[in-house]
Structures are given as structure tokens and as C-alpha cells.
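Reopening: C-alpha cells for the zinc ion complex, inputs below.
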Amino acid sequence: MNYNMTDPHSFANSNDVVVKDLDLDISVDFKTKTISGKASYKIENKTETDVIILDTRDMDIEKVTEGMDETVSVFEMGPEIPFLGKSLKIRISPVAKYIHIYYKTRPEASALQWLEPTQTAGGVHPFLFTQSEAILARTWVPCQDSPGIRFTYSATVQVPVELMAVMSASNPVEKSEDGIYHFHMDEAIPSYLMALSVGDIEFKALESRTGVYAEPVTLAKAAYEFADMEKMLDAAEALYGPYRWEQYDVIVLPPSFPFGGMENPRLTFATPTILSGDRSLVSLIAHELAHSWSGNLVTNATWNDFWLNEGFTVYFERRIMEALEGRDYADMLEVLGYQDLKRNVKEIGETSDDTKLKLHLEDRDPDDGMTQIAYEKGFSFLRLVEENVGRPRFDIFVKQYFNKFAFQSMTTEKFLDYFEEDLIRHDEKLEKAIDIHAWVYEPGIPSNCLVIKSARFEKVNASLASWIEGVPAKDLNTKKWSSHEWLQFIRHLPVEMTLDQMSELDAAFGFTDSGNCEILAAWFEHVIKHQYIHGYASLEKFMVSVGRRKFIVPLYKLLVLNPEGKKMAQDIYKKARPNYHTVATSTIDEIVK
Ligand code: BES
Ligand code: ZN
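Re-run output (same inputs, fresh job):
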């Protein structure tokens, strides 16, 4: 069968010619907020074409050369297309094996967030991190920026001597004397997994294959929080086969990082908001680790197939957590996920095309269509399959899927063919019970979606009910609650509450001053809805310092619902915006305007 692999979000002429290896030689300049240098590609010309097209955005190309002897090439930039940037068309000789692009990024390059010292934990040195997913790699490296194209890479990176550089590659464990760092990634990866961080960073090894990077003031806390990482890695391998990237480290970034985590190979990038002090939010690490199979090994061919990356990863994440913490723990994650799914479908609209697993993001910023649907509807689909075929059979299928398609890209259609051939095998009863078509190609939540129950949440619900019936908050039995139980409690507080009730809860449980960002973000929704003034200072502090989109976007949306709230949102945003990544500001600009 012929699968159409063309990617609507890339200009690359990849049917004719593809990049195979990148050698990057760049220097990072904090004063001008630019990266400049040379990207050398080894290419494979499949059709003897005389042009190679790369993706670029917000960058200036100084010169292009060809071959070992670097003869100068003719190139041309296409017109600027919203989100996609400009194509870079380079004239090549059909026998050329190497091209070299001399370039410089611009300060507005979206993948790059340049932080002032005051925006870091240490407060003394500046910081830079990249975020390439989905189509931002092209703003810091000219590339064939499609998840369906893979290449190996090596890099030489020059940074100020007091700083250290790390990448999604083999990494240094201490600072170099001259500020020059060398990297190599010997497994072929798609461009969206290229990543770089530069800052006052230190390394601490955890166990044989795991470690953490962070600013010195954060390092000990991070090492404590992630102490179970090696166990997660072992559990993951026991489920779905060997970890193929040798080392697994996590870097804790400054709070403006717009995501919870990003699965950059060998080095997950993570928000500091998961450092709760009690290891209660580590399922996020399980998630990013799981991407080492789902996503980084078997990769969505285009962003329309995003659910293959995230749905499998959420499923795998919960299996890792089940292995470490038990079934009742994983049940809580599933129930919270289902709540997220219902909320997200309601928000997007249950007949919206964006609630289908297979997306249609052509002519759009893929970021706009990449919602919780891929995660939680994707998860629910796989969970339903597990329930129907039985866990042992499903596990064999998933393991083989990762193995068979390792280091390849996958379209939804190709996956469904394999699924049919390897698992369903024309079993009509099974086919009917699962109803793949409804899940993948139709909007909303299919009627056969499982509704998971959590025994631990039943207890939470009982406590909540007794509070509503008049038992004082301080007398509720909440001693052994994890942050998931607290989330269940806070999410189900009555829609109508008096300010006295809010104060009572706050006095008993200290929500407003919680050190746990999940709890804070859930609580702040009530703070806003009930105009609980006592919580405003904490709310503002949170929104100004934390740039994690999942937390702040819902809060801005709630605030703007009434005129006073809107004024408050605008005031907060004025202070907060300089701390946010463009991935966040592009969404929030629209909400508060
Ligand atoms: N790959 C995603 C982050 C991402 C998605 C970046 C789409 C750009 C576009 C990452 O693995 C992720 O899903 N992060 C989640 C955490 C997770 C526990 C659901 C996040 O950041 O909230
Ligand atoms: Zn993910």
C-alpha cells in the first residue's frame, strides 16, 4: 500500500532529496539574542534533482555552499507564509553529497527563549532554551522540518565560558574551560527533537543510566524529586523492550518553560513546577520517558497523526506508574484524565473536527489543533482495546509495534492497517466492540468509551459529601491524600460556595499557599469564580512566574469572563508577558485582547 507521507507543514521536497546527517557549528550570543554559524548536511538525492528545499523562519541566510570544497551555491527564499516561514531553495548538483548553510537567527525566533538572569532560579546568569515541537525547529536551524524525516546529528556549540550547553544528544557532565561543547546524536531523529539549553547548569548522576541537570540552587531538589527515574526506566523496558538511547537525563528549566515536559531524546526538558517536594508529580517524567518509545522511536508522520505520539505515551505513562505505585494509583490518573477529556471536548465542541483523533491541520498553525484530544481520547481508545483483547495480548502487540517500526514514521492509516492485520485479524465481534472508525475519524467521545472507577477517589468523594453536609473541613480524614486525591477534591467542590466556605477550606488545607502547582492551579479556578480576594496575591504571583501553558491559559480564560476579571487579567498579563514563551503568548494575546 502506498501511504501519502507528504507533510502539509513543511516545504521540503523530501520525495526527491532528504537530509541524512547534520553537523552543526554554532555560537550563542546572549547580547544580540542570536545564534549564528553553519549547518552542514549530508544529503541523499533520490531522483537526481537539482534543488533541495529546506524550511526556515525568522532567520537570515548568509551563504550556501556545496561539497567538501564548499563551492558557492545559488539559493532563493520563498515568500513568508504564516506559521510556516520561508522555503529555502538551494540549487545543487545532482551528485552533491554535502551542503553547508551559513545562517543567523533573529531575536524573535520562536523556538528560542532568552531569559534575563532575574528570570532564572539563581538570578545571576542568563539562560537559553529551545522548544522545537511542533514546527519551530526551523526558527533556529534551517532544516527539513517534518516529523517524517529523520537524521543523525553532531554539534559544536560555543557559549559564554561561565555557562554550560546541553542538547538532545551525548552531554557534558561538567563545564568546559573554553565554553565550547561537542555533541553527537547517533540515532536518527526528526527535527522537532533537536534541542539546546544554555545556562548556569550542573549535573548530578542518579543511577547508572539516569541523571539530572539544573541550576545549582535547584539541583538537590531535582535529584530528590526524580530519585525513582531508574526504576521507571526498568519498568518501561520490562513492558515494551529495551531503551534505545543509552542515557536518560532530565533538565529542570526556569519556570517560563511553556510545557510540563518535552521528550527531547536522552534529555527530557521539564518545568520546575513538578518539583513539589514529595515526588507526587513524577508521572510527568514517566510520560516523557515513555516517549522514548512512542514518539521518538515510532514517530507521527505528520502533525495530523499527533495522537499516535501522545495517546500511546499517555497509555504507556500510566502503565509505568501502575508498575511503580500500583493499580489504584493508575486508576486515579485515568479518572483525572477522563475528566480532562470531557472538559476538553466540551470546550472544543463535541461535533468539532478537532475532537477526531486523525486531525486536519493543513493551512493552520498545528499548535492550535494539538489539544488534550490526542492525549486522552487517544488513551481511552487504547485502553478500550486493552480491555477487549486482554492485557497480555495487547502488550505483545504494542511491544512488537515499537520494535517493528523503530526509527520510522507512522501515519494513522499505516497504524490502522497494522492494527487490523496483527491484532484484530478480521474478528468481527472484536471489530464491532471497538469500532475503530468512530474513535479515529468521528468527533466526540464514542459511546463505548470505558468509564474507569477509582476506589481512592470514592473515599475522597465521601469526604467531600460529608463536608457539604456540615462536617468541618479540619475534621475530614485527608491525611494520606496524594496530590491526585486533592485534585479530585478541589475539582468537585460545589459550583456555589460562600466566601466563608472558601476561607474554611483554605484555613484547613492551605490551598492558597500550596507548594504544589497542580493543586494551586485547580484552586485558583475557584478563587476566580468566587472572587475570593484573599487568594489574589498568590494567583498573581503564580501567573507572573509560571509560564506553563496548561496552567495559565484556563486561568486567563476564566478571568476574562467578566469586566473586573478582564481588567485584572490585563494587568497581570502586562507584568507576566515578558516571562512567557511565544508558544504561550500567541494563545494568551487572543484571550486578553
Ligand atoms: N510533546 C509534548 C509537549 C508538546 C506537545 C510540545 C505539542 C509541543 C507541541 C510533551 O510530551 C507533553 O505531552 N507534555 C505534557 C505533559 C504530560 C504529562 C501530559 C505537558 O507539557 O503538559
Ligand atoms: Zn507527550
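The chain is about 40% helix and 20% strand. The two ends are 48 Å apart (CA to CA). Marking as resolved unless the reporter disagrees.
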